[in-house]
Amino acid sequence: MSEIRKTIVVAVSKNGIIGRDGDMPWRLSTDLKRFKAVTLGKPVIMGRKTYDSIGKPLPERANIVISRQLAATAHPDVHTANSLTEAVNLAEEIARKSGVNEICIIGGGQIYAQAVNLADRLCVTHVETSLEGDTSFPAIDTALWKVMETIDVPAGDKDSYPTKFVVYDRR
């Protein structure tokens, strides 16, 4: 059985900010479309605060929410896990059963901080601005990560800022 790739999917500002007051500090319709394309059909892992900010399970994806309170996500389309390790094991099992070779870790800050050491790939939307916020993403160490693809994305009519989409693979 082939290895299941663990991919972090994140949008991050120039100064490392990914969130403010339980939400993203920007509007990026172009990035949301790419996020959907990257994660569709794959198990997604998120923390409870991220799940709460989305407000519902993401369609056509197995949603796994990490929470210490298992009743926190009483929804039939949501799996819960007590830890990142438990969530990854469950996501890999679901991925194998559904014939996909990738799981996606989609936030938030605490989950990313733990997952960055486990991840094989980073799909990062670099938001071309610096912003105030209360949640950040760890700095990407180029000694550990190699750029595989870079796409400059000008701001569309429903985007707050231009972005650069970069795929990094672990060296």
Characterization of this structure:
- The chain has one domain (5-170): Dihydrofolate Reductase, subunit A (3-Layer(aba) Sandwich).
- Strands 5-4-3-6-1-7-10-9 form an eight-stranded mixed β-sheet, with helices on both faces. A two-stranded antiparallel ribbon has the order 2-8.
- It has helices spanning 29-39, 48-54, 84-98, 109-115, and strands at residues 5-13, 17-19, 44-47, 63-66, 78-81, 102-105, 121-127, 135-136, 145-153, 163-170.
- Strand 3 (44-47), helix 2 and strand 4 form a beta-alpha-beta unit.
- The chain is built from four helices and ten strands, in the order ββαβαββαβαββββ.
- It has 171 residues and is α/β, with parallel strands linked by helices.
A few lines on this structure:
The protein has helices at residues 29-39, 48-54, 84-98, 109-115, and strands at 5-13, 17-19, 44-47, 63-66, 78-81, 102-105, 121-127, 135-136, 145-153, 163-170.
Topology, please?
Elements: E1 5-13, E2 17-19, H1 29-39, E3 44-47, H2 48-54, E4 63-66, E5 78-81, H3 84-98, E6 102-105, H4 109-115, E7 121-127, E8 135-136, E9 145-153, E10 163-170
Parallel strand pairs: 1-6, 1-7, 3-4, 3-6, 4-5
Antiparallel strand pairs: 2-8, 7-10, 9-10
